[in-house]
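Design job #97: recover the sequence.
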């Protein structure tokens, strides 16, 4: 695979460093981008394969994958991410990715996947995208779209999933059970038997399925008319005129009954079909159907009862969805944050074991980065345990009178190993007689996190001020630095779990210290805010109101 160019889109510097080193040692040319914007500028005809992370600073790898395919670029794309749940894998593959390597991974596995995808791509001869054609319809797998001639057919993701299962198993009878086992909606929720029936009906309609029931009725009517004609012929003693008149009258009556009956049945059928479609729509998005729509149609009782059910469904779904999103996000964040440094460690260990690093300076650099990743994981695990205990209500803050100068001194001592190494000084301004009813140990932890954050985002040989203001109404603690500052649009997000403002400045940050600090302060009845001016200062304020 000499001469092949790989575009690596990975925001973690340590992991990217190890991966680039190994790929270049294997003879590949590597272009490294830390975000989607940079990756877009590096993508050209020379790139043969893309290694793509999902969670990137300026967007999702899924969006970048979609944009690449929309541009008609069909080179292999391998997702390289800690998001290894089945729903994430399926989503990536359906957007056009060719493979999925979950973090933490081993170098041999990654290299094998890269070689295999490049080999398949070369063997395909850069062929056009795979498609299934049936009648005037064409299902393009790589685009995940259905066309009627040149017209794009409007289909939901779940309808297209069902169609993909059917066309990819052409000639094979799939039971309803087999389809239900393979299908699930966008949120990973299993599709039930009734929902599958509706999707099948929708697909038949959009694919122009024939009206078999009407044809069956017509053929049965013709057969019945033939039988009656023979009976009339015998009954009238072979009189052709009487037989023809009788058969004609019967045929006219049958046609009129068919027209009237069909219209009545069709109206009811359309009403029921309409409400069935709305039921599925509401299942996907309870707010997508207005109340007025339920009151339309002649099946009034069904509509009324359905609306009552929808109202209940909306309330329960909102609650369930909120809890589900919270749990999904926290598990995904924790998984991603732990797997990324673990993947870096795997790469570094493999490099050392395989003797890929012979230069002493480079070997020392690898060991230093490995140590940094271990420290990062240790800090993350300890902080997560503290945060989980607080949010679960397992921590009861023990309030008593504490000297604030003691708390400030202990917090400054806790980060002295960092500030001394960087030539920074923590200036404490707190009168010795200032006291506060609080949990001193946990407040020390909160201030320590703020000081560590100030140190990480300040230049060397600068001052960090820790001051206290107190009066009869409130006690306010300030932590102020003169570092890079925080952009105004970033301020609402800085207390979110795993949120990092500037990874370029501190690549080993885990983005949990500020979230933990906020939980501690609010758990003791306080409030934390922040003010910042880019390239000038950042000041955190902890306020406790005296009741």
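Job complete. Output follows.
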């Amino acid at each position: 695979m000499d001469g092949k160019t790989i575009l690596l889109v990975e925001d973690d510097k340590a992991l990217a460093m190890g991966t680039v080193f190994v790929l270049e040692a294997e003879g590949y040319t590597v272009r490294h981008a830390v975000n989607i914007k940079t990756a877009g500028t590096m993508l050209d005809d020379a790139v043969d394969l893309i290694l793509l992370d999902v969670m990137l600073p300026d967007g999702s790898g899924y969006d970048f994958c979609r944009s690449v395919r929309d541009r008609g670029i069909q080179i292999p794309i391998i997702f390289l991410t800690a998001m290894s749940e089945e729903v994430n894998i399926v989503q990536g593959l359906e957007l056009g990715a060719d493979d999925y390597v979950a973090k933490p991974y081993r170098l041999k596995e990654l290299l094998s996947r890269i070689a295999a995808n490049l080999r398949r791509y070369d063997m395909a001869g850069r062929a056009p995208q795979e498609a299934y054609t049936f009648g005037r319809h064409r299902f393009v797998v790589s685009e995940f779209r259905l066309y009627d001639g040149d017209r794009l057919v409007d289909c939901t993701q779940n309808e297209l999933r069902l169609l993909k299962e059917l066309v990819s198993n052409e000639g094979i009878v799939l039971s309803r059970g087999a389809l239900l086992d393979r299908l699930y909606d966008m949120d990973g929720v299993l599709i039930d038997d009734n929902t599958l029936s509706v999707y099948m009906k929708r697909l038949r309609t959009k694919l122009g399925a024939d009206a078999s029931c009407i044809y069956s009725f017509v053929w049965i009517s013709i057969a019945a008319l033939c039988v009656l004609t023979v009976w009339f012929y015998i009954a009238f003693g072979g009189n052709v005129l009487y037989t023809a008149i009788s058969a004609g009258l019967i045929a006219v009556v049958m046609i009129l009954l068919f027209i009237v009956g069909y219209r009545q049945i069709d109206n009811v059928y359309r009403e029921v079909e309409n409400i069935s479609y709305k039921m599925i729509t509401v299942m996907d998005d309870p707010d997508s159907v207005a109340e007025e729509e339920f009151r339309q149609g002649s099946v009034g009782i069904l509509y009324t009862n359905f609306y009552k059910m929808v109202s209940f469904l909306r309330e329960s779904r909102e609650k369930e969805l909120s809890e589900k999103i919270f749990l999904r996000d926290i598990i995904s964040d924790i998984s991603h944050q732990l797997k990324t440094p673990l993947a870096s460690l795997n790469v570094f260990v493999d490099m050392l074991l395989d003797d890929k690093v012979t230069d002493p300076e480079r070997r020392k650099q690898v060991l230093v980065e490995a140590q940094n990743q271990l420290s990062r994981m240790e800090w993350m695990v300890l902080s997560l345990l503290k945060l989980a205990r607080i949010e679960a209500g397992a921590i009861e803050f023990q309030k008593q009178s504490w000297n604030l100068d003691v708390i400030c001194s202990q917090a400054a001592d806790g980060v002295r190993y960092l500030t001394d190494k960087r030539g920074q000084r923590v200036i404490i301004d707190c009168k010795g007689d200032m006291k506060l009813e609080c949990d001193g140990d946990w407040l020390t932890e909160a201030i320590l996190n703020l000081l560590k954050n100030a140190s990480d985002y300040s230049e060397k040989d600068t001052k960090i001020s820790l001051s206290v203001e107190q009066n009869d109404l409130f006690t306010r603690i300030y932590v102020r630095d003169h570092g890079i500052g925080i952009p105004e649009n970033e301020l609402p997000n800085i207390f979110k779990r795993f949120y990092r403002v500037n990874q370029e400045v501190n690549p080993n940050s885990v983005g949990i210290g500020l979230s933990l600090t906020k939980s501690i302060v609010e758990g003791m009845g306080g409030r934390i805010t922040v003010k910042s001016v880019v390239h000038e200062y950042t000041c955190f304020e902890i306020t406790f109101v005296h009741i």
